[in-house]
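Predict structure. Input: DUS-like FMN-binding domain-containing protein, 80 residues.
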Amino acid sequence: MPGTACIDDIPSGMAIGKIALQGRVIAAPMAGVSDQPYRSLARRFGAALAVSEMVSASPQLRHSRKSRQRTTHDGEMGPV
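Output follows.
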């Protein structure tokens, strides 16, 4: 069908700089959603890359309980 997108039309791999990704899906950063359990599930179900949500750059806020939860990468390959 003309004009219809198909998963086969999407490249199966891509690169971000020197980092090669194998897969067609990247899980976007979403505030309040893309925490460690979400990223783990996204990777388990095929996401080539799962991005953590934004963390505050302010030193006063960076060490809060919520910021620590957002930066947890236990069991993941870690920040790139």
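Residues 10-70 form one domain.
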